[in-house]
Design a protein that fits this description.
7 strands, about 375 residues, rod-shaped, single chain, alpha+beta
């Protein structure tokens, strides 16, 4: 395992001042490092720098030898640059391929092993409103986890999926923290899957609203909203579906304690429920879209029947007026005093008869 060299000076590990108003360790946003700490026997130990936390665990001799108790370092980063993550990789011995994936993101959920370091990628989802005048949409991000024997590095991409609450919740349970870095892996995976549950519930509410609008008596155009929901469901499927395999593989790894495996299986169960729910959304939106398009077609046909009916009614006076507009000498009743009124009466009677007929047949 790579050890820290005190003589090395790197910008990422220089001592940084802490805001006194913030209870937890947090770096300024001129760095990708959000929080870090050393955990000894299930308790957090604050240090002035990441390097001090590593030295405390590796050089301080504080790692308990008995099973079930371990000291490790947890470093959390948000959208790190290539330089920052490369410097961190030198300290923890991270594989260059995994580091490259963590820098550029846009990876599928996966679990890979590089020597003694496991690399887990998970997609995060959030239901956000980009514009007050627009509906909420599903946005995705990523969380990468480097899990070693005495360290865990979390790399987050995206505006959502904060891990601060997961860290505080885990720190409130020292017994779980004593299980080592895999406890952090479970806490992060559990928070990611909980985010899936929240988003799928929100999408379910939108689908219910669209379904009610489609079958409501009032005529509305819901095609755009339905297509937007289908795109959101596709985003969810891309995030939720591929994660099942890595979680299943993680529960079968020997480096994961049995206690953590039980919790990981619970997370996998929740993920299975979310995956089935998302698949049912796709199956539900297709009939809703077909029903809406059928209603639109029926409404268009009704409009065309009304237009055709009124066109037929107005054809009667147009035809009669056209005939008498030919100015022939020998035409019916052209010399009769009341011929004009008779023609008007014929026109009115014909139009009224057509109107009543169309009305009786439901065309008007």
């Amino acid at each position: 395992m790579t050890r820290v060299r005190p003589a090395r000076t790197m910008s990422l590990f220089k001592t940084r001042s802490r805001p006194h108003a913030v209870p937890a360790q947090q770096a300024r946003r001129d760095t990708a490092v959000i929080d870090w700490a050393a955990y000894i026997d299930g308790h957090r130990v604050n240090t002035d720098s990441v390097a001090d936390a590593v030295r405390l665990v590796r050089d301080g001799g504080l790692t308990a030898p008995e099973e079930g108790s371990a000291g490790f370092v947890w470093v959390g980063l948000h959208e790190p640059s290539s330089t920052e993550l490369t410097e961190l990789a030198e300290v923890f011995g991270l594989h260059p391929l995994a580091v490259e994936d963590a820098i550029h993101a846009h990876q599928r959920p996966k679990l890979e092993r590089y020597d003694d370091v496991h690399f887990l990628v998970m997609k995060t989802v959030g239901y956000v409103q980009r514009d007050p005048a627009q509906a909420e949409v599903v946005e995705t991000g990523e969380i990468m986890i480097f899990c070693g024997e005495d360290f865990v590095v979390t790399v987050r991409h995206g505006a959502h999926g904060e891990l601060g609450p997961a860290r505080r919740q885990l720190e409130a349970n020292p017994e779980r923290l004593r299980l080592g870095p895999t406890a952090v892996v479970h806490a992060v995976a559990d928070r990611v899957v909980d985010g899936y549950v929240c988003v799928t519930d929100a999408v379910q509410e939108d689908i219910d609203e669209v379904e009610e609008a489609v079958f409501a008596p009032d005529r509305t155009d819901e095609a755009r909203r339905i297509y937007r929901l289908k795109r959101e469901v596709i985003q969810l499927k891309r995030a939720v579906g591929p994660l099942a395999g890595p979680l299943r593989n993680l529960t079968g790894r020997r480096f994961v304690p049995d206690d953590i495996k039980e919790y990981l299986r619970d997370v996998e169960d929740h993920l299975t429920r979310v995956r089935e729910q998302v698949e049912s959304y796709d199956e539900l939106l297709n009939p809703i879209l077909h029903a809406h398009m059928t209603q639109v077609t029926v409404a268009d046909n009704q409009d065309m029947r009304k237009i055709s009916a009124w066109g037929a009614i107005f054809m009667v006076p147009t035809a009669i007026a056209g005939i008498y507009g030919m100015n022939f000498d020998f035409m019916p009743e052209t010399q009769w005093r009341y011929g004009y009124f008779m023609v008007l009466g014929v026109i009115a009677l014909a139009c009224l008869s057509l109107y009543r007929g169309f009305r009786r047949n439901g065309w008007l």
